[in-house]
Design goal:
This protein has 99 residues and is α+β, with helices and mostly antiparallel strands. It has one domain. The chain has helices at residues 65-69, 72-82, and strands at residues 5-8, 11-14, 19-24, 30-36, 42-49, 55-62, 86-93, 95-97. A hairpin with a 2-residue loop joins strand 1 and strand 2 (11-14). The radius of gyration is 15 Å and the shape is elongated.
């Protein structure tokens, strides 16, 4: 995909420039991605509680909030298929940090 630029944290940036992207989740967990030149805007995470009380974490990053929100439906299906006791689906905005 050849995209020229996008805005993250209010700054326009060219695709070729490497930087770190940081997401802070509601529970205080901080995910740092990079260095990357990819045009990512949001980080998503599913924290699933299994029948035996253990937890599994699934995560990823997307190029838009809309793309991240589309993953909520498959999370519901995944919970049913895998028999999760409960789960949380969370999305956080990625903020640019210089390399």
């Amino acid at each position: 995909m050849a995209r020229a630029c996008t805005a993250i944290a209010g700054k326009a940036m060219a695709r070729g420039r490497k930087r770190y992207l940081v997401a802070t989740m509601p529970d205080g967990y901080v995910k740092r991605i990079g260095p990357t030149a990819d045009l990512l805007t949001h980080y998503w995470r599913i924290v699933a509680v299994l029948d035996n009380g253990k937890t599994e974490v699934f995560w990823g990053h997307t190029r838009s909030l809309a793309e991240a929100k589309k993953l909520k439906g498959p999370a519901v299906n995944g919970a049913k298929m895998r028999g999760w006791k409960s789960y949380q689906f969370e999305i956080a905005e990625l903020v640019e940090e210089p390399v």
